[in-house]
């Protein structure tokens, strides 16, 4: 069983469909009581849109505390796009505080004019933690995933970086610590390789 948080602004349907496609049983949760009742072994935080709205929704539902506790216990967790950015202390997008689970910040791309912002489309992702369970059956030296974002994460601890990509300069494309993972790219939009990400995550809940 994998619980997927519905913040009201997330790409819920595409993420749940992708998880179901790799054989996972899904429970959508909107508050801590539903999460506890689900007896889930994994937790997914998807997101699209504005980080302010995502974080505000988590705080209003009190699922922010649930996410903090889940990550602190090193239970299988996967953040997607805004679900990754929300884990850090601060974001330049709206000058807001994140959940503060990991030290670091979320900053807007500062790139030469030939690099359009938002960064949108397929880009190569290189894994910097080759032993990570999220990388199983994926090439360390590079796989293509789909991105849509104007901001990117800068973890204070470089050991947290699980994967990098390059768009006019290298940026953090995914983080990983223990059984806690998050991706800036969208696995649910990334076809077979994206499904492999979800399959690998589901395997950590067994």
Order of strands, widest sheet: 2-1-3-4-13-12-11-8-9
Q: How many individual helices?
A: 6
Outline: globular
* Order of H and E elements: EHEHEHHEHEEEEEEEEEH
Structure description:
This protein has a single domain, classed as 3-Layer(aba) Sandwich (Rossmann fold). It is built from six helices and 13 strands. The chain has 206 residues and is of the alpha/beta class. The protein is 27% helix and 33% strand. It has helices spanning 12-21, 32-38, 51-61, 63-72, 82-85, 191-203; strands at residues 2-5, 26-29, 42-45, 77-80, 88-91, 96-97, 102-108, 119-127, 143-149, 151-155, 161-166, 170-177, 180-183. A hairpin with a 2-residue loop joins strand 12 (170-177) and strand 13 (180-183).
Question: How is the secondary structure organized here?
Answer:
Elements lengths: L1 E4 L6 H10 L4 E4 L2 H7 L3 E4 L5 H11 L1 H10 L4 E4 L1 H4 L2 E4 L4 E2 L4 E7 L10 E9 L15 E7 L1 E5 L5 E6 L3 E8 L2 E4 L7 H13 L3
Parallel strand pairs: 1-2, 1-3, 3-4, 4-13, 5-7
Antiparallel strand pairs: 5-6, 7-10, 8-9, 8-11, 11-12, 12-13
């Amino acid at each position: 069983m994998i619980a997927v948080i519905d913040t009201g602004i997330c790409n819920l349907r595409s993420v749940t469909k992708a998880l179901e496609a790799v054989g996972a049983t899904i429970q959508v949760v909107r508050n801590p009581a539903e999460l506890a009742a689900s007896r889930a072994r994994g937790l997914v935080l998807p997101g699209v849109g504005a980080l302010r709205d995502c974080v505000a929704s988590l705080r209003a539902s009190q699922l922010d505390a649930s996410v903090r506790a889940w990550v602190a216990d090193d239970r299988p967790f996967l953040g997607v796009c805004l679900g990754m950015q929300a884990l850090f202390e601060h974001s330049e997008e709206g000058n807001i505080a994140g959940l503060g689970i990991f030290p670091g910040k979320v900053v807007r791309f500062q790139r030469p004019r030939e690099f359009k912002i938002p960064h949108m489309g397929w880009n190569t992702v290189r894994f910097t933690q080759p032993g990570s369970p999220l990388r199983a059956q994926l090439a360390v030296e590079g796989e293509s995933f789909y991105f849509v974002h104007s901001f990117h994460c800068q973890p204070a601890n470089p050991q947290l970086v699980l994967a990098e990509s390059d768009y006019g300069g290298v940026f953090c494309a995914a983080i990983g610590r223990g059984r806690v993972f998050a991706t800036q790219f969208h696995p649910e939009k990334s076809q077979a390789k994206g499904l492999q990400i979800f399959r690998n995550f589901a395997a950590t809940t067994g």
